[in-house]
Amino acid sequence: MPKTLLQYGVSFALIYLSLTLGNWIQSLLAIAIPGSIFGMLILFALLVSGITPVNWVKPGCHFFIRYMMLLFVPISVGLMDHFDLMINNAWAILASAIGGSLIVLVILSLVLNKFMNRIEPQASHKEHH
């Protein structure tokens, strides 16, 4: 039991430290990217580099994922409070969601097509030799 509590404590501390550093970087740079995004990138870099072992963060992550629905309750209540605002702007919301998705889809397909065309000639060139 004490080992489990220590694992959760270390895990939550690492996640919270990453979030705090991310918020600090966001306030230092004064840009519109949320600090939580910087925090996730910091945590990702720590995990990928091996500085922080995955099993140090795993208990807290499993806890957050298990109870993630509870974290969306405040957002849902906020949406219900401003439902009339959402209905009044429904076309703009839909247009931006669909338009943004289409832009990402087109750019991704162009980049992937260019990447695949670059790989194909090299592969066929190696087959002939």
Automatic annotation (TrEMBL):
<feature type="transmembrane region" description="Helical">
    <location>
        <begin position="63"/>
        <end position="80"/>
    </location>
</feature>
<feature type="transmembrane region" description="Helical">
    <location>
        <begin position="5"/>
        <end position="25"/>
    </location>
</feature>
<feature type="transmembrane region" description="Helical">
    <location>
        <begin position="92"/>
        <end position="112"/>
    </location>
</feature>
<dbReference type="Pfam" id="PF03788">
    <property type="entry name" value="LrgA"/>
</dbReference>
<keyword id="KW-1133">Transmembrane helix</keyword>
<keyword id="KW-0472">Membrane</keyword>
<feature type="transmembrane region" description="Helical">
    <location>
        <begin position="31"/>
        <end position="51"/>
    </location>
</feature>
<keyword id="KW-0812">Transmembrane</keyword>
<keyword id="KW-1003">Cell membrane</keyword>
<dbReference type="InterPro" id="IPR005538">
    <property type="entry name" value="LrgA/CidA"/>
</dbReference>
<protein>
    <submittedName>
        <fullName>CidA/LrgA family protein</fullName>
    </submittedName>
</protein>
